[in-house]
Amino acid sequence: MTIRKNIRYLLGGLLALWFGAAATAGRVDHVNVSKQKQRYDVLVSAWIDLPQPSLRNLLTDYDTVIKANRSIKSVQQLASPSANVTRLAAEVEVCVWFFCRRLKQVQDMQLVSAGLLEARMLPELSDYKFGEASWRMIAEADGSRLLFAVSIEPDFWVPPLIGPAVIKRKLRQEAIETVHGIEALAASQNHE
Description:
Blueprint: H1 3-11, E1 27-36, E2 39-48, H2 52-59, H3 62-65, E3 72-78, E4 85-96, E5 99-113, E6 116-121, E7 128-140, E8 143-154, H4 164-190
Antiparallel strand pairs: 1-2, 2-8, 3-4, 4-5, 5-6, 6-7, 7-8
Helix pairs in contact: 1-4
């Protein structure tokens, strides 16, 4: 799977959560991708044309939110370790140039508060050494501010030709596309 598609899943709610675009009233205001050692961090700030409670419902409707990212090949809900945690197993396909991989992600999703959704990847069941994500949803005007942060460390070989600059560019593209996918889902909810 490609890093691009994987980040789409994370951003979409995963598995999220990870974002195929349609024009809506939402917008991406800021995207930053950085790398420290082997870990990649992505920060996104976007405005979504959906009230905060509706955005929260969308991001926690895992059967629907995966439609925000065409890289997600499957998502399955597993037995949860506790009542307030949803464990998800996802397969995403990620391609950068000629290099494609199908990656497995198992993560625990938790709605910490009405405006905060968090995910923690389980490295022993995933193709990652580390993974965490958070979605902060803040009421703003007639919609919501979505602040998405993800940190991942791949546990697979990446060809040397595909260096950090290429991966960072793909992660940025995927983040923007995922937000647009969420915006498209939000627009369809607003028109129902």
